[in-house]
Design a protein that fits this description.
The complex is a heterodimer. By secondary structure, chain A is an alpha/beta fold. Helix content of chain A is 35%, strand content 16%. In chain A, strand 1 and strand 2 form a beta hairpin. Chain A is globular. Chain B is mostly helical. Chain B has one domain: ABC transporter involved in vitamin B12 uptake, BtuC, CATH 1.10.3470. Classes of the chains: A alpha/beta, B mainly alpha. At the A-B interface, strand 11 and helix 9 of A face helix 3 and helix 7 of B. Chain A: This is Iron complex transport system substrate-binding protein. Chain A: InterPro entries: ABC_Transporter_SBP, ABC_transptr_periplasmic_BD. Chain A: It comes from Pseudonocardia hierapolitana. Chain A: Keywords: Signal.
């Protein structure tokens, strides 16, 4: 693409210049010198000399947590939204420098961040097109990093294929919010956020406590006639559990997203099907309807229980994530799966 | 005759084997008296279109390969080696990603155009230089153009996750996308390509003796070349529109046909069509069950099964003896 070559070269040169400027000193002028704060994330000790002043947030869960923690004014860039941010963060998000796709490593470094928060592990994986380099390689440049811990890979540079199943819990969401709050110097705010999430989750759990547990499949129809389903490892399994349901593909634990054929879905005959519509920063639940309609009108699925009973619902991939969106997602799923318990 | 029975048996397997248990009685009932039974939907909307797509695309690829090898007198000239599948896939992807044209009917023309452009480029590149389009130069030009097209396709498809998931069909062939409208729309194109290809059997035999001899036998080399290129483009382009860029079938199948029936195109062409259908259907059936619950795309199983055969051919034959 010759059109974009020149800006790319300029931004690379700018990044190089900034790197030279940053050499030897603390990564950002605003950082306070002190004993520093350390938190352990996915087996890596993350130490900041003082609260990061130049935070970069990639992917929905990371973008929403920085807004929830009230540090939006310290954000130097955000990238990649799966859907519109929660209503309470729309104004804060509109004020950030946002990229609809992930930046290149050069573009990331050109923003001169001192801390990168990622909602998914692929950002630091050595495989895959979305990698911006391993966490170790960023740390060498004075950039600390964080992965949402329900997706902790077994080692730096790994991705979904190496998620530690023990880390896929709601407790890890609370731990992330608290740890990030401590590192960012907003521990009190983090406690409020956690308390708010816990209260809303408890309310959902009370509402569905004695309801029969539905078997729910979270399904993305693909262009080639196959489907991607959320396996048991995916955090949506925890959200379904809170909302009084089970993942119909809970036994698939090799990775988060599993490609299956139509016959596999017919064989499992789930009670409810949710789509997994993704990825555009403007998406609202209404944008998930076409995916739901594709499943409802697929002639091969006419005999499915969920189709016959009108229980195929549009659902956003953003609501599958482990982050501050969990209570919102749990309330939504509970209302879809147990409409009688509103 | 045995081969025709083999194709029927493979089609039967393709109807019966899969994650949902389906018996021959289920198939008969679904076809004759569908009544909303669970097996009816599986047979009518999944297994039948998939089997039909495998038959059509496999036959198209086998036939295209036999014509391509006869045309270029090159044993390494499968449609995939000539860049035809890659060109068709790239154009199909462009049509879907940028123009958003609907099922087969719209973008099959893009596939034809892509296939024709790729084949034209390969033949033009291979013809450059003093000694003309030798088998080795055709294979090398085809490899280069195919690599370029694959890179372009990957560059579009891999740009982000979402696009990759939606369009991975265009990287590796698959029969999972087939539905009845797609299959029915493909039939006239493949029928036309097949008629044209079969009509070329005698001229291809004459051309095998060299242009001068062919001319003295009343053949018209330029007309033959144009018709054969058209047949390859239509057959491989339609197969790609239905099943994506499946490799190795068009390359390997004609060799098996010649091993069974000798070099005469009157026999090689129909045998290649039958064998192509047989191989693609079996590869698809294998892909459905080996990694359950995941499906292996037929392009992958065809490559896994076809690559060793291709390497064997490379070792055994002196390149160019056709």
């Amino acid at each position: 693409m010759p059109r974009s070559a020149l800006p790319r070269i300029v931004s690379t040169l700018a990044a190089a210049a900034l790197l030279f400027a940053a050499c030897g000193g603390p990564p950002s002028p605003g950082a306070q010198v002190g004993s520093g704060t350390t938190a352990r994330n996915c087996g890596i000790d993350v130490t900041v000399p003082g609260p990061p002043q130049r935070i970069y947030a990639a992917y929905q869960p990371a973008i929403e947590v920085v807004h929830a923690l009230g540090v939006s004014d310290r954000v130097v860039g955000t990238a990649f939204l799966d859907a519109q941010v929660l209503p309470e963060y729309v104004d804060a998000q509109a004020a950030t420098d946002h990229l609809p796709e992930l930046p290149s490593r050069e573009a990331l470094l050109a923003a001169n961040p001192d801390f990168v928060v990622s909602g998914y592990n692929g950002l630091f994986a050595t495989t895959g097109s979305e990698s911006l380099g391993t966490r170790a390689s960023l740390r060498e440049l004075g950039v600390q990093s964080w992965i949402f811990s329900p997706l902790c890979p077994s080692a730096d540079g790994r991705s979904d294929e190496a998620i530690d199943p023990a880390s896929v819990t709601i407790e890890n969401v609370y731990a992330d919010v608290r740890d990030l709050g401590r590192l960012f110097g907003v521990a009190d705010r983090a406690e409020q956020v956690v308390a708010g999430i816990q209260a809303r989750i408890a309310a959902v759990q009370r509402r569905v406590a004695d309801a029969p547990r539905a078997r729910v499949a979270v399904v993305s129809p693909e262009d080639d006639g196959t489907f991607r389903v959320a396996g048991g490892l995916d955090f949506v399994t925890r959200i379904l559990d809170i909302a009084g349901a089970e993942n119909a593909f809970d036994d698939l634990r090799g990775r988060r997203n599993v490609p299956v054929g139509a016959e596999e879905i017919i064989a499992r005959d789930p009670d409810v099907i949710l789509t997994s519509t993704c990825c555009d920063g403007a998406y609202t639940p209404a944008d998930a309807e076409p995916d739901a309609e594709r499943i409802r009108t697929n002639p091969a699925f006419a005999g499915l229980r969920a189709v016959r009973e009108g229980r195929v619902h549009g659902f956003l991939f953003a609501d599958r994530a482990a982050g501050v969106r969990v209570p919102h997602a749990a309330e939504l799923v509970a209302s879809l799966v147990h409409p009688d318990r509103r | 005759m045995g081969l025709a029975l083999g194709v029927v048996a493979a089609a039967g397997l393709s109807l019966l084997v899969g994650i949902q248990p389906v018996t021959p009685a289920d198939v008969v009932l679904a076809l004759t008296a569908p009544a909303g039974r669970p097996a009816d939907a599986v047979v009518l909307y999944l297994r039948v279109p998939r089997t039909a797509a495998g038959l059509l695309a496999g036959a198209g690829l086998g036939l295209a390969g036999a014509v391509a090898q006869g045309l270029t007198r090159n044993p390494l000239a499968g449609p995939e080696v000539l860049g035809v599948n890659g060109g068709a896939a790239f154009a199909g992807l462009v049509a879907m990603a940028l123009v958003g044209v609907g099922p087969l009917g719209g973008y099959v023309w893009f596939c034809f155009a892509g296939a024709a452009l790729a084949l034209g480029a390969v033949l033009a590149i291979a013809s450059a230089g003093r000694d003309g389009a030798t088998p080795v130069k055709i294979a090398m030009a085809g490899a280069a153009v195919s690599a370029l097209l694959f890179s372009l396709t990957s560059a579009i498809v891999l740009r982000d996750h979402d696009l990759f998931e939606r369009f991975r069909f265009w990287l590796v062939g698959s029969l999972t996308r087939a539905d009845l409208p797609i299959v029915l729309q493909a039939v006239p194109f493949l029928a036309a390509g097949t008629v044209l290809a079969l009509a070329l059997a005698r001229p291809l035999d004459a051309a095998a003796l060299g242009d001068d001899t062919a001319r003295s036998l009343g053949a018209r080399p330029a007309l033959l070349r144009g018709s054969a290129i058209a047949a390859v483009v239509v057959l491989a382009g339609t197969a790609t529109a239905v099943a994506g860029p499946v490799g190795f079938v068009g390359l390997v199948v004609p060799h098996a046909a010649r091993a069974l029936a000798g070099p005469a195109h009157v026999r090689v062409l129909p045998l290649s069509a039958l064998l192509g259908a047989l191989v693609l259907l079996l590869a698809d059936v294998v892909g459905r069950v080996v990694l359950r619950p995941e499906e292996v795309q037929v392009g992958v199983t065809a490559a896994v099964l076809g690559a060793p055969v291709f390497l064997y051919l490379l070792r055994r034959r002196r390149v160019g003896d056709l």
